[in-house]
Design goal:
430 residues, alpha/beta, 4-stranded mixed sheet, 24 strands, binds ligand EPZ
Amino acid sequence: MEQYVIKGGNRLVGEVEIGGAKNAALGILAAAIMADETVLIDNLPDVNDINVLLDAISGIGASVHRLDRHMVTINGKNVSAYNIDYDYIKKIRASYYLLGALLGKYKRAEVALPGGCNIGSRPIDQHLKGFRALGADVEIEHGKIIAEADRLVGKHIYFDVVSVGATINVMMAAVMAEGMTILENVAKEPHVVDVANFLNSMGANIRGAGTDVIKIRGVQRLHTAEYAVIPDQIEAGTFMFAAAATKGDVTVKNVIPKHLEATIAKLEEIGCKVEEYDDAVRVISDGNLSSTHVKTLPYPGFPTDMQPQIGVTLALCKGTSVVTESIFENRFKYLDELARMGANVKIEGNSATIQGVERFSGARVSALDLRAGAALCIAGLAAEGITIVDDIVYIQRGYEHFEEKLRSIGGIIEKVNSEKDIRKFTLKVS
Ligand code: EPZ
């Protein structure tokens, strides 16, 4: 298994280009099969999750042509299978977006039930509630979701839980249903809006994405389109917190500052200087950072996908901070790893009390999920000595050229896959 080996202590200084939003791209790629014509999608992040979903899409018969690492054309005309194998769902939960796309277009779909993951049980009851409300018969048999409908008819649906996945999945199922669908208590994340904008560019009729109510008037068919995925605000925020934690001065480029408002507010609250430009944000930290409190919430609140990154940074801020994770039930495991680097943390239920320390000391830690892994790399870059982060396959699912981008702003980090390589790195940097 590959690892990252990091020598901490360098300030991160420089500029980083941010890639396309993984969580928007996953919904957009699934939605692309709903047209019977070629659609072109640009600004895709070249990360494992995207590559797995593209395999699943070509696996059901759609034609997929990778023009380059960030651009693909998809034509759903020849889709001939409506079932998505378990091994795709096992690799990426978001394969379940094909449920909404296939049901919406072909009125049938069969997708393996996604399991839980390291951050929580991840139920999909709201997805199924939406499909049933539109008229689909949805059964769970032998670990599979089987959804079929003679007709899909628009309905007024109120989600019990604000869910990004359910909002996107049911929105897709509704775009070719008969009549008007009204979705309430929906997720408003930028990637939900991006999927809606993409569907509209293919001829769908969706209004209100990004607000509390989305209205979808069904259309007969969808057509060709060319679309570029929005920048990834979570990748951007990860580098912004890396600047804060390493007393750095980093500018993230090709971002939409509005999507980063909650992140910018927290960085300023702890004492960073933040400069906003049209499509860039600069974060400067002198290291004299102070504690604050943060609670993760659906957008526009502070994103749960940024919780590990702010947690690591707060562990180096003077004073006592409290982090409350209101979205997932098990997203503090990285703090146990951080404690092994010297952090002073106490977890009680969905809250963590973090007492700032002067510095971390490098240690061997594990990336337990995508964002926790990235956060532990930030900890290693801020620590004294050498940190080894195991299981970086999680990080590679959602961060393109992560170690190269960190090296380009002064991070001393390498990807290795043997103890020998670790020894070589340690000798080289000592
Ligand atoms: C998406 O997951 C993201 N993944 C997650 O990012 C992100 O953390 C999450 O949204 C919240 O922003 C993708 O977009 C591929 P939810 P999703 O449905 O859609 C409960 C990353 O690091 N819920 O918004 O699965 C659920 O248990 C990943 O990139 C139900 O109860 O999240 C959770 O408590 C990690 N029933 C809450 O809603 C349902 O049917 C929010 O989950 C669905 C969800």
